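User: Show me a protein chain along with its predicted structure.
Assistant: Here is one chain, sequence first, then structure tokens.
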Amino acid sequence: MIRAVIIDVDDTLCMTEAASFVLENEVLAAMGRPPMTRELHLATWGDPLLEAMPKRSPGLDLDVFGPLFQTTMERYVAEGRLDVIPEENLRALDALIEADRSVLLLTSRAESEVRHMLEPGHAVASRVSGAYHRGNTRYGKPDPRAFDELLAHTGLSPAQCVYVGDSPGDAVAAGGAGMAFIACMQSGVRRLEDFDDRHVTAAIDAFPEVVPVVERLSRTPG
């Protein structure tokens, strides 16, 4: 029985990579640095931001980049250019909740990058029962221990959970933790053949398809 659906944020719950590419290059331009290529951004997509940026812009001063990125990100969010959750995805979250399943987030984002989604009144905050990020977990994906705090806090077992994500690292983390994994291919950033099929329980083309897939997995013995 699946009791909890754990969801990645970027390119799973909302499509983020393309907007993030523009945002990060805007910050680099403000710092007088040349833009990164889309190919480099894609190659490092999924890494925590402050680990990825030195690869995307060698020699970057992270102490300057970090605060400038935060203020620029807040502006993008306020302008509706980043972290826009489609209505059909919100309805999918509602359907999961109506089926008596907990909805939780687990992301590689820093706390400051996800905080706005957890503020009272945000459409996501009212639907999730917990959020786990770089600020409240000791390990990051693809390490299976990324789920340690979530499992400890909720009392859930891996067999009662399914993780929904878009990257091979998401799949490795879930598989290593002993939980089912649903690959969401909506962004087009990755292809199913990029994944180790040993860690992929099911694949979906768009996030709302998670509802019937979770129902099917919950009825499957073992």
